[in-house]
Structure formats: structure tokens, C-alpha cells
């Protein structure tokens, strides 16, 4: 039976430590999202997969109302413990069944979410339903960090090669959203908006992220202890072969990108 989604309960206590932006970059990224969505003070926005609020909290200052949904109560508990959390109206809900009326939002925001949802077509239909006639879907994410950058490619190539084939399969979207959404009728609005910044990582840090099962999209949450250790042996060999100083900080150039989409008119009018 296909997994419907990847829950993040187990990551709640470490998510901010492993996914936070460098200091100050969260404000620049919130401004980028607001520009990409042409958001105004009176705008009403929904973030699907709000998590611990790393995007929603800085974005809330740009709009009148910001709603967030997530399936993970522990993740939202972390968000509720933060200053200014009251600015976000939270609900426990799933993307394929949004608990909102038709045409409720000026924009719906997804940041690294579609790869976690098996029934993405239904989720996208729901998003189209709750968008206003001139509303936009904003798809965001970063590239070039530890998982995607060329610098650490030997580590991830060795890791994937060591995994059982059935554990490599993704739950949701495997293509970039800019390639996957247009065939489904979603129309890009202009070019992607981008903001670049630098982070510092170590090969040993990548190893620890796997060993401690910190990252959802490395498949570690689906592995047995024996399978994990088999993969770790391959990663240790790759680090020894490619990184003479595995504890050395390496600079990675990261780009956060936001692409706006208009929904398929046929879906929006009939959903």
C-alpha cells in the first residue's frame, strides 16, 4: 500500500537545528516570497506544511492573515512555543483535504512539500479550490545545500547505491515543480524569484545527519538499523576517498527559489 505522506513527528525536536537559515536570511526569503506572490498587507495566505514556522513566522509580517496547516502536532507545538506564533492560525490538516472554503486565499505556499505527498493531484485540486480567482500557488525551495550541491555528490551517490531498491522510491513528486506542474495545467507566472546565500557544512556533518536520521529525503526514516549501517559503511568509504579533511568547513552556495503558478481554470471552476 502506498504511503500517503511522510510525517515529521520524529523530527520536531531537531528540525530547527538542522533546517534553519543563516541568521538574517529568513527575512530576505520572506521578502522574496512576498514579492513573488505580489502579497500585500491585506492578503490572506495559507502555508501547507507549516512545520515549526521557519517560513511562516517571518512571512507573517507582510500579510494580514496567515494560516498554516500540518499533520504533525509535535512540529506545530514547536511553532506555538515561539514568539509571535499567535500571528499564524494553525490547523491539523492534510493537503488533499483542506478544511477551508472555496476561494479563501490570495496565495497558497508550498516549500519542499510536494515530494512528501503521494496524492499530489488531489492536493493540487484542493489548492486550486481554495485559491481566489486571481490567487497564486507559490512553490519554494532551496538548491545547492548539503543534499543537492555538487561538492557532496560523492557522499549521496554512495548512500543511494547502498540502499535497497524498494527503499529509494519517493513518496511524492520527484521532478522539480517547474517541470511537473505545467503538464497538469498550472501556468507559471514570470520567471522564478531567487535569493542566494552561503552556508558552511562538513562531510562529517553529512554523515551525522544520516546516522541520526535527521533528514526526511535521505530515506533514513524507512530503513532498518541493519540497512542504515550498510549505507553508513558506504558513506564512510566515500568520505575517506574524497575528503582528506572531513571535519573541515566547506562553503556551499545555496539558492532559495520561488515560482508562482496560476491554477488550471477548469479545475478551479469545477472543484
What does this structure look like?
- It is a single chain.
- Strands 3-2-1-4-5-7-6 form a 7-stranded mixed β-sheet.
- The chain is an alpha/beta fold and 271 residues long.
- It has one domain (9-270): Rossmann fold (3-Layer(aba) Sandwich), CATH 3.40.50.150.
- Strand 1 (44-48), helix 3 (56-59) and strand 2 (65-70) form a beta-alpha-beta unit.
- The chain has helices at residues 15-19, 25-36, 56-59, 73-80, 120-130, 153-162, 165-168, 177-180, 203-211, 225-242, 265-270, and strands spanning 44-48, 65-70, 88-92, 105-111, 131-143, 187-201, 250-262.
- The model has no long low-confidence stretch (mean pLDDT 91).
- It has 11 helices and 7 strands.
- The chain is globular.
Amino acid at each position: 500500500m502506498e504511503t500517503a505522506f511522510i510525517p515529521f513527528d520524529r523530527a520536531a525536536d531537531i528540525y530547527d537545528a538542522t533546517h534553519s537559515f543563516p541568521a538574517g536570511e529568513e527575512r530576505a526569503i520572506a521578502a522574496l516570497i512576498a514579492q513573488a506572490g505580489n502579497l500585500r498587507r491585506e492578503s490572506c495566505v495559507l502555508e501547507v506544511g507549516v512545520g515549526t514556522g521557519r517560513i511562516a513566522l517571518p512571512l507573517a509580517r507582510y500579510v494580514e492573515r496567515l494560516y498554516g496547516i500540518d499533520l504533525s502536532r509535535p512540529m506545530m507545538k514547536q511553532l506555538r512555543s515561539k514568539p509571535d506564533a499567535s500571528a499564524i492560525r494553525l490547523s491539523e490538516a492534510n493537503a488533499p483535504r483542506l478544511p477551508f472554503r472555496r476561494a479563501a486565499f490570495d496565495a497558497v505556499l508550498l516549500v519542499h512539500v510536494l515530494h512528501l505527498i503521494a496524492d499530489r493531484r488531489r492536493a493540487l485540486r484542493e489548492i486550486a479550490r481554495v485559491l481566489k480567482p486571481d490567487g497564486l500557488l507559490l512553490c519554494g525551495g532551496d538548491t545547492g545545500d548539503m543534499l543537492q550541491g555538487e561538492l557532496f555528490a560523492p557522499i549521496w551517490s554512495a548512500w543511494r547505491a547502498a540502499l535497497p531498491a524498494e527503499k529509494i522510491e519517493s513518496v511524492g513528486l520527484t521532478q522539480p515543480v517547474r517541470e511537473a506542474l505545467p503538464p497538469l495545467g498550472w501556468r507559471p507566472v514570470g520567471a522564478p524569484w531567487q535569493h542566494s546565500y552561503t552556508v558552511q557544512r562538513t562531510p562529517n556533518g553529512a554523515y551525522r545527519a544520516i546516522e541520526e536520521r535527521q533528514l526526511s529525503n535521505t530515506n533514513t526514516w524507512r530503513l532498518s538499523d541493519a540497512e542504515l549501517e550498510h549505507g553508513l559503511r558506504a558513506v564512510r568509504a566515500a568520505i575517506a576517498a574524497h575528503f582528506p579533511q572531513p571535519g573541515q568547513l566547506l562553503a556551499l552556495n545555496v539558492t532559495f527559489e520561488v515560482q508562482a503558478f496560476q491554477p488550471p481554470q477548469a479545475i478551479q471552476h469545477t472543484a
